[in-house]
Amino acid sequence: MRRIPAGQRGASLLEVLISTAVFAVVLGMAVPNLRAMSAPWALSGAANQLVADLQVARQRAIARNARYRITFTAPRSYVLEVETSPNTFVADTAVQKLPAAATLGTVNPGNPVFDTRGMLTATVTLSVTVPYAGTRTVTINVLGKTTVS
């Protein structure tokens, strides 16, 4: 039987348990901070997703010579709709969802409806909020230009 010198032995059970406990405490302090660190990325991603889908609706209205609107159905979802007969809209895409942390605020004055020239009847503003990151406002002017502030 070969003897192992005292300086080359493995860790004791107590040392392993203490190091595991210290690691768990450090991890417990770090996880909430990770969510706060990723919040600005979620906010800009949600705002960019809205801008892109608003531009898709505008481009489809022009290309297909039909009115399109985006209907916000829940705090985190919306659907792109096309007009099939006067004031009758049907879904043109599946329900779109924002990132998990993002929620939609008020849509003022209402859901944007793009005419066949890609224009709106009034400027529409909507807000996107992500905890720990704040709120961004997406504005669509009457010409269909979309800005984020």
Quick overview of this protein structure:
The chain has 149 residues and is of the alpha+beta class. It has one helix spanning 13-64, and strands at residues 68-74, 77-85, 88-91, 96-97, 103-108, 113-114, 124-130, 134-140, 146-148. The radius of gyration is 26 Å and the shape is elongated.
Key structural traits:
9 strands; minor pseudopilin epsh fold; elongated; four-stranded antiparallel beta sheet; five-stranded antiparallel beta sheet; alpha+beta; about 150 residues; 1 helix
How many structural domains?
1
The fold-level CATH name is: minor pseudopilin epsh fold
Through-space gap between termini: 75 Å
**Biggest beta sheet summary:** 5 strands, antiparallel
Main CATH class: Alpha Beta
- The CATH superfamily name is minor pseudopilin epsh domain
Helical stretch tally: 1
The SS-based structural class is alpha+beta
In percent, how helical is the residue content?
Answer: 25-40%
CATH architecture: 3-Layer(bab) Sandwich
Number of E strands: 9
Please characterize this protein's 3D structure.
It is a single chain. The chain has one helix and nine strands. It is of the alpha+beta class. It has a single domain (12-148), classed as minor pseudopilin epsh domain (minor pseudopilin epsh fold), CATH 3.55.40.10. Strands 1, 2, 3, 4 and 6 form a five-stranded antiparallel β-sheet that branches. β1 and β2 form a beta hairpin. The radius of gyration is 26 Å and the shape is elongated.
SSE layout and pairing:
Layout: H1 13-64, E1 68-74, E2 77-85, E3 88-91, E4 96-97, E5 103-108, E6 113-114, E7 124-130, E8 134-140, E9 146-148
Antiparallel strand pairs: 1-2, 1-6, 2-3, 2-4, 5-7, 7-8, 8-9
